[in-house]
Amino acid sequence: FRSSRSNNRIDCSGNASHSRAMQDVSIITLNGHTPRIHKTAFIAPGCRIMGDVEIGEGASIWYNCVLRGDVNAIRIGARSNVQDGTVIHCDSDKGGMIGFPTIIEEDALVGHMAMLHGCTVRAKSLVGLGCIVMDGCVIESHAMLAAGAMLTPGKTVPTGQMWGGRPARFMRELDPNWSMGNQMGVAHYVHNAQVHKGAISGI
Predict the structure, then answer these.
(1) pLDDT of residue 2
(2) pTM
(3) Cα angle 163, 165, 166; round to 5
(4) In the predicted model, what is the mean pLDDT of the chain?
(5) Torsion on CA atoms 157, 52, 70, 23, rounded to nearest 10
(6) 5 CB contacts (<8 Å, ≥6 apart)?
(7) What is the C-alpha separation between 85 and 37, in angstroms, rounded?
(8) pLDDT tens for residues 131-160?
(9) Contact between residue 35 and residue 51 where contact means Cβ atoms under 8 Å apart
(10) Strand, coil or helix: 157
(11) How far apart are CA 161 and CA 203, in angstroms?
(12) How big is the CA angle at 186 (ends 167 and 36), to the nearest 5 degrees?
């Protein structure tokens, strides 16, 4: 299994047991684009990653996620994590209008079983468990979308705010200590990804 030609990209061909564990990861070239995955990123078994996708240094994509970069780009920044069962797609061009890529900047958390479509998640922000984030949405830095929320097209969650509900609306200002706790979560996932990577390589 080899996902890219670059020396900076993940290469799972060297260890036979690791290769067996990683056979359940799909890295698919589509429309001339091969996913670009930094060698330090963690891609868990069960993931399906295709097309114009780039995953940065120390990022982690957890079990059974789908990242489908077929009609636009998907970018995952350094140390960000996309947790188990999340689906990320992007918005296609239509009717003369340019579609939206899906951009997750560095040090962001995306909770389990979220759905992101043609949106931007800025650095050091949090998308809670089971959220839906739709086309043209932006979650600004140090902002939070609460678990189960649905952010409807074109909405922005400003810095320092928590939004929640379906459709999502402003709920409260975040405590000044919230960002510190959120970044502790980021650090935990960076460490935990290496633990999981080591366990898989030892299968």
Answers:
(1) 34
(2) 0.88
(3) 125
(4) 91
(5) -110
(6) none
(7) 19
(8) 999 999 999 999 999 999 999 999 999 999
(9) yes
(10) strand
(11) 43
(12) 90
